[in-house]
Design brief:
It is a single chain. This protein has 10 helices and 16 strands. The chain has helices at about 10-30, 45-55, 65-75, 95-100, 110-115, 145-150, 150-160, 160-170, 230-240, 310-330; strands at about 1-5, 35-40, 60-65, 85-90, 120-130, 135, 135-140, 175-185, 185-190, 195-200, 220-225, 250-255, 260-265, 270-275, 275-280, 285-295. The protein has a 6-stranded antiparallel β-sheet with strand order 6-5-16-13-8-9, with helices on one face. The longest helix is centred in the last third of the chain and has 22 residues, at about 310-330. Pfam families: DAGK_cat (PF00781), YegS_C (PF19279).
Length: about 325
């Protein structure tokens, strides 16, 4: 199989640089004729290379890096009629998409070995009205803007902890804004602090944000947070961590839909986050392209040691602690 590995050399404390030779060796042993491309600082470097590789006839593209690198590769191949298969090697900070596909994180070589299992599924892909694609989440609201505020150097050096610090810093600025949101089941009109349109169950490291999300059903999980009160938000985060019980809370709208139209009802700007990157401003229309890309995934139940779960659980506890501290300061 002709395979193109597109990797971000700066992701995840530069782990790909240290493992690239062993990864290529693993792929060769699987019978892949593999070449590698290191992304550059040039705008859309990964996106442009993914499109070029697809049009050159590569059968598999492997996106190695953080969620931003994966998003670029998805944007490179999604508009094409003939799309190659896609695999991912996570090497970023939150690695939401890898969580959903049950691919080992913090171990690029183990992630590469998943490809040898030859297990794939046809993944849904989201698309905006101006042909921007996303594979994990579209979101808008106060706290979703924190990803734009964390410098890339901090993300590389401190990873997920950089987001924790920034999230706590932004808490006093959380506010609700009036929105009109049209979906398959009707129309919501009211004030919300955040919305999420999720394709997987993992958002910002929280694996129970959309606990029943299906990867290939053609539906977004639309979540509307109908409060900006700090104590209520702390309570909702606790419900998320406690098995996804937030979905039944009166401060949450939880909707399955194939299409979403988001229309601000004020002059306040709402920036839209697509897979952790800025994707334009609302108003915006989101459409689910069912089974759009065939992707390698770990379809078997994998063991706990393939994850750094204990460490990440501690970081999530730190989120709640930070929120509590800031709430007490600002009441």
């Amino acid at each position: 199989m002709r395979t193109r590995l597109i990797y971000n050399p700066t992701s995840g404390q530069e782990t790909m640089k240290k493992n690239i030779a062993e990864i290529l060796d693993v792929l060769e042993n699987f019978g892949h004729e593999t070449s590698a491309f290191a992304t550059t600082a040039e705008k859309h470097s990964a996106k442009n290379e993914a499109r070029r590789a697809a049009e050159a006839g590569f059968e598999l593209i492997i996106a190695a890096g953080g969620d931003g690198t994966i998003n670029e590769v998805v944007n490179g191949i999604s508009p094409l009629e003939n799309r190659p298969k896609l695999a991912i090697i996570p090497a970023g900070t939150t690695n939401d998409f890898a969580r959903a596909l049950k691919i080992p994180r913090n171990n690029p070589v183990a992630a590469a070995r998943i490809i040898g299992k030859e297990q794939t599924l046809n993944m849904d892909v989201g698309c905006t009205g101006d042909d921007k694609y996303f594979i994990n989440i579209a979101a808008g609201g106060s706290l979703t803007e924190l990803t734009y505020s964390v410098p890339s150097q901090l993300k590389t050096a401190f990873g997920y902890l950089a987001y924790l610090a920034k999230g706590a810093e932004l808490l006093p600025r959380v506010k609700a804004v009036p929105l009109k949101i049209t979906h398959d089941e009707g129309v919501f009109e009211g004030e919300i602090s955040m919305f999420f349109a999720a394709l997987t169950n993992s958002v910002g490291g929280f694996e129970q944000i959309a606990p029943d999300a299906q990867l290939d059903d053609g539906l977004f999980t639309l979540i509307l947070v109908k409060t900006a009160n700090l104590f209520e938000m702390i309570r909702l985060i606790g419900l998320v961590l406690n098995g996804g019980k937030h979905i039944d809370d009166k401060k949450i709208e939880y909707i399955k839909t194939s299409q979403i139209k988001v229309e601000p009802q004020s002059d306040d700007r709402m920036m839209i986050n697509l897979d952790g990157e800025y994707g334009g401003d609302a108003p915006i229309t989101l459409t689910n392209f069912k089974n759009h890309i065939e992707m390698y995934a770990n379809l078997d139940e994998i063991s706990d040691e393939n994850y750094s779960g204990d460490e990440e659980d501690l970081e999530l506890e730190a989120v709640v602690s930070k929120f509590s501290e800031e709430a007490e300061k600002n009441v």
